[in-house]
């Protein structure tokens, strides 16, 4: 059975898109990509929302000033030509541990996929985060293999974004499994002694997309 869109949870999950963006900080700038997975209306909406944001905040360095118009045009174009791409969706989900028919979902593979997606979400793969993910993963999941996680982190572009992935996992996992992977992400984020604002915001999005029972998590 095909998965449903992680955003609306109604229409079929049939496409994904990668969108480059630039943010300037006076003399420095940052280029990154955002990934969206879902039904076409939801992905298109996410792309145009991102383009709108870039139109406001994508200008604040000389380089960003030069690059941003191209990225804005690309974003509008990308949103306009969005077509179904079930093969790419299947590939991204399989990479994250979800076989096409949901047969034999293995919680350890899900943990690798979600942890790798979260570690790669900010565009940089930090060694401390990776070693924390390995250390904590080995204590939480039976049969956890560091190599499997490291393999995923070698090609983070193949993974879906963690929030979209969480929305799909909500359809597949039972409550204890959802809680187990969420606790894992929480532990990785807190491994360096503090959870940054970005990490907290990401955890909050993942939590809500997993549709976890709020009382279970507060415990
Ligand atoms: Zn949707």
UniProtKB/TrEMBL annotation:
Query: Which Pfam families does the UniProt record give?
Result: TerB (PF05099)
The record's keywords, sorted A to Z, are: Membrane, Transmembrane, Transmembrane helix
SUPFAM superfamilies documented for this protein: TerB-like (SSF158682)
Domain Co-chaperone DjlA N-terminal intervals: 113-215
Say if the entry is tagged with keyword DNA damage. Answer: no
Q: List where the protein spans the membrane.
A: 53-77
The protein, known as: TerB family tellurite resistance protein
Question: Origin organism of this chain?
Answer: Nannocystis pusilla
